[in-house]
């Protein structure tokens, strides 16, 4: 769990608009940084001069979330940019039965209509900001640096969480103290994706069901690995996963195939790019992480041959 100084503050129980109880404190437990942490947690976003930022949420009213024994704080980061289903995504978080849950929304300056939706949910969201950013991965990084949870995950504004998923996650966290991350089962379209194959990472990236909706990482472990690398316009989440498993040798656990955390909706930013653009970007990530050059040549030739035969078969 995240190391903190203990607080004697009493728990305040507040119901949200979906009549779900959430735990709050009027005092925050200080998050203690370690020497090797690659980033620090902030309570509020940095506001620079001549920098337009709109913000809100319960933290600005002096209500904070803290970890509680047997109730680890789970932080959910929700990136958004002009997503029509934003309110539905928010409601799926609000409808979670788990009481110690934190919602942080990072909006990329979607405009007045989105800001109005966020303001209407001021009492339901722990912290939200709306400002111009450098894209999806930048939004993830901003959220990570604002998350106070013991575990943190991404739920995009086009995603939906299923009602009991955070209670399922809580049980895995409490009953598996030494794990660094949890890979939850997810749904995309009519298909269910489950499993965790760390031994395959040297030849393929899709070793977990998804990096959103079903993937939750211990904050202390994330601070050891570091944030997403913004130089990768696509697949930066895969770079993070590679560093987690290969460089830092973190340990994860998978949920059962029947324990579906939610649906991915229209997620899949990296998959919307061309085959060879994605392939070359993957090779760049592997090279920058010092993977064996012979294996990189093997991956390139093998994927290219497979693509060629697939093209012939579909003619």
Q: Any overview of this molecule?
A:
The protein contains 8 helices and 14 strands. The strands form 3 sheets. Strands 3-6-5-4-7-12-9-13 form an 8-stranded mixed sheet, with helices on both faces. It has a 4-stranded mixed sheet with strand order 8-14-10-11. It has helices spanning about 85-95, 110-120, 135-145, 165-175, 220-225, 235-245, 275-290, 295-315, and strands at about 10-15, 20-25, 55, 75-80, 100-105, 125-130, 150-155, 160, 180-185, 185-190, 190-195, 215-220, 250-255, 260-265. It has 2 domains: about 10-270, Spore Coat Polysaccharide Biosynthesis Protein SpsA, Chain A, CATH 3.90.550.10; about 275-315. The termini are far apart. It is α/β, with parallel strands linked by helices and about 325 residues long. The protein is globular, with a radius of gyration of 20 Å. α7 packs antiparallel against α8 (about 295-315). Residues about 1-10 have low confidence and may be disordered.
**Share of helical residues:** 25-40%
Q: In order across it, which strands form the biggest sheet? A: 3-6-5-4-7-12-9-13
Low-confidence stretches: 1-8
Q: Tell me the name of the CATH class of the largest domain.
A: Alpha Beta
Overall radius of gyration: 20 Å
| Distinct helical segment count | 8
Average residue pLDDT: 93
How much of the sequence lies in strands comes to 15-25%
């Amino acid at each position: 769990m995240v190391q903190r100084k203990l607080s004697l503050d009493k728990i305040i129980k507040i119901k949200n608009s979906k009549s779900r109880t959430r735990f709050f404190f009027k005092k925050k437990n200080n998050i203690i940084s370690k020497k090797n942490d690659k980033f620090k947690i902030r309570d509020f976003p940095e506001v620079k001069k001549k920098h337009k930022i709109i913000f809100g949420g319960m933290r600005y009213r002096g209500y904070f979330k803290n970890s509680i024994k047997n109730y680890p704080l789970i932080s959910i980061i929700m990136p958004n940019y002009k997503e029509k289903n934003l309110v539905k995504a928010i409601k799926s978080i609000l409808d979670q039965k788990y009481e110690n849950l934190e919602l942080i929304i990072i909006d990329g300056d979607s405009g007045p209509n989105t800001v109005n939706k966020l303001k209407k949910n001021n009492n339901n969201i722990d912290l939200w900001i709306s400002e111009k950013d450098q894209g999806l991965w930048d939004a993830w990084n901003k959220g990570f640096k604002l998350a106070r949870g013991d575990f943190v995950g991404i739920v995009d504004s086009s995603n939906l969480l299923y009602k009991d998923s955070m209670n399922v996650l809580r049980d895995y966290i409490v009953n598996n103290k030494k794990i660094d991350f949890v890979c939850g089962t997810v749904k995309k379209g009519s298909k269910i994706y489950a499993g965790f194959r760390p031994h395959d990472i040297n030849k393929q990236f899709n070793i977990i069901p998804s990096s959103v909706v079903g993937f939750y990482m211990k904050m202390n472990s994330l601070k050891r690995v570091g944030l997403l690398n913004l130089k990768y316009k696509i697949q930066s989440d895969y770079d993070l996963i590679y560093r987690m498993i290969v460089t830092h040798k973190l340990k994860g656990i998978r949920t059962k195939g029947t324990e579906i955390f939610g649906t991915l909706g229209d997620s899949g930013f990296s998959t919307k790019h061309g085959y060879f653009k994605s392939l070359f970007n993957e090779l760049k990530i592997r090279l920058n992480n010092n993977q064996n050059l012979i294996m990189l040549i093997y991956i390139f030739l093998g994927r290219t041959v497979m693509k060629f035969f697939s093209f012939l078969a579909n003619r």
